[in-house]
Design goal:
Strand order of the largest sheet of chain A: 5-6-7-3-8-9
Oligomer: heterodimer
Shape of chain B: globular
Number of domains of chain A: 2
Number of strands of chain B: 10
Largest interface: A-B, 44 and 41 residues
Number of strands of chain A: 19
CATH architecture of the largest domain in chain B: 3-Layer(aba) Sandwich
Radius of gyration of chain A: 23 Å
Strand order of the largest sheet of chain B: 5-4-3-6-7-8-9-10
Largest sheet of chain A: 6 strands, mixed
Structural class of chain A: alpha/beta
Number of domains of chain B: 2
Shape of chain A: globular
Strand content of chain B: 5-15%
Number of helices of chain B: 17
Largest sheet of chain B: 8 strands, mixed
CATH class of the largest domain in chain A: Alpha Beta
Distance between the termini of chain B: 49 Å
Structural class of chain B: alpha/beta
CATH class of the largest domain in chain B: Alpha Beta
Strand content of chain A: 15-25%
CATH topology of the largest domain in chain B: Rossmann fold
Radius of gyration of chain B: 23 Å
CATH superfamily of the largest domain in chain A: P-loop containing nucleotide triphosphate hydrolases
Order of helices and strands of chain B: EEHEHEHEHEHEHHEHEHEHHHHHHHH
Helix content of chain B: 55-70%
Number of helices of chain A: 16
Chain lengths: 513, 350
């Protein structure tokens, strides 16, 4: 006999999908899907990039139509059933950003025009609606205030309350979005890849928070790719592939039968891989920072940071959320005007000595969650990658035929050829990420700055990307700075490590020495 | 210059093909550009030029939040951030980007600091064109030039950083050095312009003042109120009156006009709408032609300027202004607007 537990329960149905089909643009997805969630179950929906997970979640939220069959909500609600469902995904961050936003807005104080603070966002009114024109009835409520304090404490966003939402780091913003969704007290909280972009310590904390939530009244649903950590209290799993649902049922049963989803990848130990023996200190200096200080609104974001990056060095840049990693990179990417007030030399020229940012950017290939959030959704994937030649966000020039060839080559390598003429908004999050990575690699630049490039990628795509990055990293005169919170995401070939905490360098060393 | 056919009239436009960033940097190689005023255009233009490798300093009165913004944007007091007067002294191009009222106030301190061969640069021709009222008469040994980006400071900065550029007009009022045009175009490219359209100071100001009193703000609000009131007079609900006057325009029709032109919209609507619009278009134009004539006359004569300057210097102006703004904000029409906006599909369930 197998060891399946028979759970005695009086659980009632919570949401059922009966023989449904969903329409996405001109395609029908999940034809014939039957899925029943009971009210004492917490589900994980896992599957590779592009398998339709987001579409399925949007159907639950009412923003994708159910064409056939029935989607039934078995709980009580005022207004719409979807008001009882909160869905937090990477794209949710875009809702927070203003219309005219550009990714460097965070660093450009002079042209910043107000905006919401985190406190506003998490206020009672803010939780109901951040649309300033929405006439919302709100009143000070002790129950809400108590919950608000608790959520703020659990998710450790207290220190962020005074900040403008545009000024948050990627990880900080993710936490704030989860806090807000939690404060809506939905009957169902759907979190897409909740642990991505969060540091190790906080991942453990969030896992505990979710466990507590799941023991209460809220149902939690986690959506992820096949390699993501599924929180310990998840009870059931739905496995999704491009052809449809391939498995559903109790967690252990499903994961035992479908082991490709169950095995988290082994950590990629930097010391196992190729290592460039760079004992030659006369090799060219690409980046030099001398006791750099950056502060905003009285908070010191970087303190006395000194750092030198030479040719053929590959750096892992590590540190908890909010440590200052992205700010540090903004100084190298020529995105941060405070570089002119510090002692920084890039590619042989001291900042503020008459160089243009475009000259600097020509040497750098960059990808980061911010770029992903802000990239215009109307560009085709081909345009996105072509724009890498010009370091532009959006494409405003024509590529030469040589440049185009390099673009097509990278599309092949990363499996994007079929998306060339598809608009960015219409490919999956993982495919968008791959396009942006190709954009960073297309110039074959001297310095690759890869800020959490594997966020949101499934195992296969992650492998593909890491191999491409490793191959590029082995080219002569190529340096790299790689940011991640996950040991299993470091490419082989890392030679050095810089660890930041609260704006200061706490450790800086070659690997393996 | 590229020649572009605008409805049968050939206009010349400067593009990056004719005037590249490299050329602009070469032209400005030995210049120090002093940006006076770190309000809205000031930051955008200063940051863009600096990021293009131009030698820029900022002049701003210390002790204000604006000064703090400059510090946060990497301008270093005593090295690249100074008082208005000192920045003007250090600059060979003085970008006078304080407000119209600010220009009047600070001119007595700035004028003596203009040296032979400097360029006095504006992004709006107001101060020069109405010099009889503003007192701004530059000495004859400086170039007096203009680059007016067609967008807010934020758009100027955002467009530059995205790798594109915002369109701008340019003008030369006084060419003392013989190189004024070249310097103007170089500065236009350096601040992040895409296409540069030639104009004169007069034309820039007169069209600007007419536009904001006319279609862009004054006429539009007036015409909307007239239609809304008429519908309400006859018992239409506030939401219905608002939808037929404003909401459908802003949410649907004007975007089609933006994309394809008004002529396209006329050719692609119902015959009922089309016939009516074609007839009433002439009726409305005839009704407002005299108003536009009066407006333009008053702009040229400086009457509108006189009113603006008098208002800005009246001691209780802020209070009076708040009364007017409140009247509009609390009007039934615009309160209705807020409610209607909350019902837009994208604002559900936010």
């Amino acid at each position: 006999m197998n060891s399946v537990q028979i759970i005695q329960s009086n659980a009632k149905p919570f949401i059922t999908l009966n023989d449904v089909a969903l329409r996405l643009h001109d395609k029908l997805l999940f034809e014939g899907l039957c899925w029943e969630m009971l009210d004492d179950q917490h589900w994980a929906v896992i599957g590779p990039n592009g398998s339709g997970k987001t579409t399925l979640m949007k159907a639950l939220c009412g923003s994708v139509p159910v064409i056939k069959g029935k989607l039934v909500y078995h709980f009580s609600y005022d207004g719409q059933p979807q008001d009882q469902i909160a869905y937090v995904t990477f794209e949710s961050q875009r809702m927070v950003l203003g219309d005219e936003a550009f990714y460097q807005a965070r660093w450009n104080v002079g042209v910043n025009e107000g905006g919401l603070s985190v406190a506003d966002y998490l206020s009672e009114r803010g939780v109901k609606s951040i649309n300033p024109y929405h006439v919302v009835e709100s009143h000070s409520d002790q129950v809400f205030e108590a919950r608000r304090r608790e959520v703020i404490e659990q998710l450790e966003v207290g220190a962020l309350l005074g900040r403008n939402v545009i000024q948050l780091s990627n990880g900080e913003r993710r936490k704030v979005l989860i806090a807000r969704a939690w404060l809506k007290s939905p009957k169902l909280l759907i979190l897409d890849n909740p642990f991505t972009g969060l540091d190790e310590r906080f991942r453990a904390k969030l896992d505990k928070n979710l466990e507590n939530l799941m023991h209460g009244d809220m149902r939690v649903m986690i959506v992820g790719t096949n390699r993501d950590d599924i929180p310990s209290s998840i009870t059931h799993v739905l496995c999704v592939e491009p052809k449809g649902v391939v498995a559903q049922g109790p967690r252990q049963v499903v994961l035992n039968e479908h082991t490709q989803y169950a095995t988290p990848s082994a950590p990629r130990l930097a010391s196992e891989g190729h290592r460039h023996e760079n004992k030659d200190h006369s090799s060219q200096v690409l980046v030099h920072m001398e006791k750099v200080n950056v502060s905003y609104n009285g908070t010191k974001v970087l303190r006395q940071v000194s750092w030198t990056v030479r040719e053929n060095e590959q750096w892992a840049l590590l540190g908890p959320n909010g440590a200052g990693k992205t700010t540090l990179l903004s100084l190298i990417l020529a995105d941060n005007p405070q570089a002119y007030a510090n002692d920084i030399t890039l590619f042989g020229r001291r900042r503020g000595s008459g160089e243009s940012i475009w000259e600097i950017k020509q040497n750098i290939g960059w990808v980061a969650p911010e770029l992903h959030l802000y990239y215009p959704r109307g560009a085709t994937c081909l345009d996105v990658i072509c724009s890498g030649w010009f370091d532009s966000v959006g494409l405003y020039r024509h590529c030469t035929s040589d440049q185009r060839e390099a673009v097509l080559l990278w599309m092949q390598r990363l499996g994007l050829a079929k998306c060339a003429d598809t608009v960015f908004a219409q490919v999956s999050e993982g495919e968008q990420r791959l396009a942006l990575i190709a954009r960073a690699l297309v110039k074959g630049p001297a310095l690759l700055v890869l800020d959490e490039p594997c966020q949101g990628l499934d195992t296969d795509n992650r492998e593909r990307v890491l191999q491409a990055i490793e191959r590029v990293g082995q080219r002569p005169n190529t340096s790299m700075i790689y940011v991640t919170h996950r040991a299993d995401e470091l490419p082989h070939g890392i030679t050095h490590m810089l660890r930041l905490n609260e704006g200061q360098v706490v450790n800086q060393a070659p690997i393996g020495n | 210059m590229a020649k572009i056919n605008f409805g049968g009239v050939i206009e010349e436009v400067v593009t990056r093909d004719e005037f590249s960033l490299e050329k602009a940097r070469a032209v400005l190689k030995n210049e120090v550009v002093a940006v006076l005023g770190y309000g809205v255009q000031g930051p955008a233009q200063a940051l863009n030029m600096r990021d293009n490798g131009i030698n820029v300093v900022v002049g701003q009165k210390s002790g204000s939040t604006t000064y703090d913004k400059a510090v946060k944007d990497g301008w270093v007091p005593g090295k690249t951030l100074f008082s208005l007067e000192e920045a003007a002294e250090r600059g060979s191009v003085i970008q006078y980007l304080v407000s119209d009222a600010g220009q009047m106030m600070t001119w007595p301190q700035i004028k003596p600091r203009l040296k032979k061969g400097d360029a006095l640069y504006f992004s709006h021709g107001f101060g020069i064109v109405y010099s009889s009222q503003t007192g701004i008469v530059p000495p004859d040994y400086v170039d007096v030039i203009l680059v007016a980006p067609k967008g807010s400071g934020t758009s100027v900065r955002a467009n530059f950083l995205s790798g594109s550029g915002i369109n701008a007009s340019f003008a030369v009022h006084q060419d003392a050095t013989g190189r004024a045009t070249e310097r103007t175009l170089a500065l236009g490219i350096a601040v992040g312009a895409g296409y540069l359209f030639p104009t004169t100071f007069q034309h820039e100001v007169y069209s600007d003042l007419t536009g904001e009193r006319g279609i862009l703000m004054g006429a539009l609000a007036g015409v909307m109120e007239a239609q809304y009131n008429e519908l309400r007079k006859h018992g239409h609900s506030p939401s219905e009156a608002f939808n037929e006057t404003v909401e459908e325009l802003t949410q649907s029709l004007i975007r089609l006009v933006a994309q394809n032109g008004m002529d396209w919209m006329y050719a692609n609507c119902s015959t009922t709408a089309q016939r009516g619009a074609l007839d009433w278009r002439h009726e409305f134009r005839k009704a407002v032609e005299p108003v536009f004539e009066k407006l333009y006359r008053r702009v040229v004569a400086g009457e509108e300027t006189r009113i603006v300057l008098a208002a800005n210097s009246a001691p209780d102006y802020k209070q009076k202004l708040e009364v007017e703004l409140r009247e509009m904000r609390e009007s039934e029409m615009w309160q209705t607007g807020a409610a209607v906006r909350s019902l837009r599909p994208e604002n559900w369930n936010k």
